[in-house]
Design goal:
Keywords: ATP-binding, Nucleotide-binding. With about 350 residues, this protein is of the alpha+beta class. It has helices at about 20-30, 65-70, 105-115, 125-130, 155-165, 195-200, 265-280, 305-315, 320-335, 340-345; strands at about 1-5, 30-45, 50-55, 80, 90, 120-125, 150-155, 170-175, 185, 205-210, 220-225, 230, 230-235, 235, 240-245, 260, 285-290, 295-300. The protein folds into three domains: about 1-135 and about 325-340, 3-Layer(aba) Sandwich (Rossmann fold); about 140-145 and about 215-300, D-amino Acid Aminotransferase, Chain A, domain 1 (2-Layer Sandwich); about 150-210, ATP-grasp fold, A domain (Dna Ligase, domain 1).
Length: about 350
C-alpha cells in the first residue's frame, strides 16, 4: 500500500502526534509512506495532482522520536510524487495553526484533495464534506440533544444576552481554533472582563459561546471513531479522560492537561450512536468526539489525535487497527474496480 499524509508542515510535526504513530506503524509493515505539507501541492497539466513530499524509509523504528528525526533530517530532500500513484491520502492538517500566517493554506489543500479524490486515490476524511467542517459551525449540524446550547457572534451585546440567559456562566472561544487556545471560562467573577475577553476572541473572526457544562470540571472524554463508530480493539475502546490538575480549566493535552484511559460510559456511547449516521453520511472516516457528561463539547474531524497516548497507556495497538482498516479499503477499491465513490470508501 502507498500511503500519503497531509500535514501542516513536516518541520513542525511532533513525536506525540497521531500522524507520526500511524506513519511509523505503516512503514514497519512495509508500506510506502509520504508526508506532504499544505503548501507542497502541484497541479500538473499532464499528470494531475502531484506534490513535493518527504518520503519515509520502509523500516522498523525504535520509537516515534527516532522516526520523526528520520523524517526531519535536514539532509533529506523532498521528492516529487504523483498522487494518482498512491492508494490512500490522509488529510491530517490543523487549520487553526494557519489562521495568522497562512490562512490560504487549509482551503487550498482541500481543493487539491478534492481533485485527487476524482482519481483512484482514496482521500480521508472525504474532502468535500471536510470543507464544510473547517470550523465549529459544522458542529451545529448535529442533533440538539447531544450539544450544548450555543450562540455564534461577534457582538458583545449578544454574548452578554446569552450569558444572562445561562446564569452568567459559559465558555467563549474562537469559532476556528483547537488545542484549548483562546478558550475562556466566564462566570460572575470574571464577567467584568467580558469586553476584553470578547475583543480578544473575535480579533480574528467569530466567537462561539456555549453553556457551561458542570461535568466538564472533572475533564472530558476523547473518544475516537472509525467509520462512524467507536474504535474498539481487543475489548478496549480508544477513549481517554483528559483533565487538568491545576486551576486552568482546559483539559486539552496540548494545553497541558493530563490523561488516563477510561472506558466510555453510557452517555458517551449514546452520543456516539447519535452522531454516527451524520459522520458516515459525510464520509468522516476518523473523528475525535470530546464528551462531558451527556453532551459533546467538540468534534474534531481535521486532526483527531490522542491515539499515541491511548496506546502508550493501554498497550493496545489502535494504530495497527487503523492501518488494517486502510488496507481493507484498498482491497475493496480494487475489487470493485473504482465503482465505489470516495465518500462510500471513506466509511464502508
Amino acid at each position: 500500500m502507498k500511503l500519503a499524509f497531509v500535514v501542516n508542515d513536516v518541520a513542525t510535526e511532533q513525536d506525540n502526534y497521531t500522524t507520526i504513530r500511524l506513519a511509523r506503524r505503516a512503514v514497519a509493515r512495509g508500506h510506502e509512506v509520504a508526508l506532504i505539507g499544505l503548501g507542497d501541492f502541484i497541479y500538473d497539466w499532464e499528470e494531475g495532482i502531484c506534490a513535493m513530499a518527504t518520503l519515509s524509509k520502509v523500516a522498523k523504528f525504535k520509537d516515534d522520536t527516532t522516526y520523526l528525526a528520520h523524517l526531519q533530517d535536514p539532509e533529506r530532500e523532498r521528492t516529487r510524487i504523483r498522487l494518482g500513484d498512491y492508494d490512500i491520502l490522509m488529510l491530517r492538517s490543523d487549520p487553526a495553526e494557519e489562521l495568522t500566517s497562512r490562512a490560504w493554506a487549509p482551503a487550498s489543500s482541500l481543493l487539491f484533495a478534492q481533485l485527487a479524490s476524482l482519481g483512484p486515490t482514496i482521500v480521508l476524511n472525504d474532502p468535500r464534506h471536510l470543507t464544510d467542517a473547517v470550523n465549529k459551525t459544522y458542529f451545529q449540524g448535529f442533533p440538539e440533544s447531544v450539544r450544548p446550547q450555543t450562540t455564534i457572534t461577534r457582538e458583545l451585546d449578544e454574548v452578554r444576552r446569552f450569558l444572562d440567559a445561562h446564569d452568567g456562566r459559559g465558555v467563549i472561544k474562537p469559532l476556528q481554533g483547537s488545542g484549548g487556545q483562546g478558550v475562556f471560562m466566564i462566570d460572575k467573577k470574571s464577567g467584568h472582563n467580558l469586553s476584553q475577553i470578547t475583543e480578544a476572541v473575535t480579533r480574528d473572526g467569530y466567537a462561539i459561546v456555549q453553556e457551561y457544562l458542570p461535568a466538564a470540571k472533572d475533564g472530558d472524554l476523547r473518544m475516537i471513531t472509525l467509520n462512524g463508530r467507536p474504535l474498539k480493539v481487543d475489548g478496549t475502546y480508544a477513549c481517554l479522560r483528559r483533565f487538568s490538575e491545576t486551576d486552568d480549566h482546559r483539559s486539552n493535552i496540548s494545553a497541558g492537561g493530563s490523561v488516563e484511559m477510561m472506558a466510555p460510559d453510557e452517555d458517551a456511547l449514546t452520543i456516539a450512536e447519535i452522531v454516527g449516521p451524520k459522520l458516515i453520511d459525510d464520509g468522516m472516516y476518523l473523528a475525535g468526539l470530546d464528551v462531558a457528561g451527556d453532551k459533546m463539547m467538540e468534534l474534531n474531524v481535521d486532526t483527531p489525535g490522542g491515539v499515541s497516548f491511548m496506546e502508550d497507556l493501554s498497550g493496545v495497538d489502535f494504530s495497527g487497527a487503523i492501518i488494517d482498516d486502510l488496507e481493507r479499503k484498498v482491497r475493496l477499491q480494487r475489487q470493485y474496480g473504482g465503482t465505489l465513490t470516495n465518500r462510500q470508501l471513506a466509511v464502508i
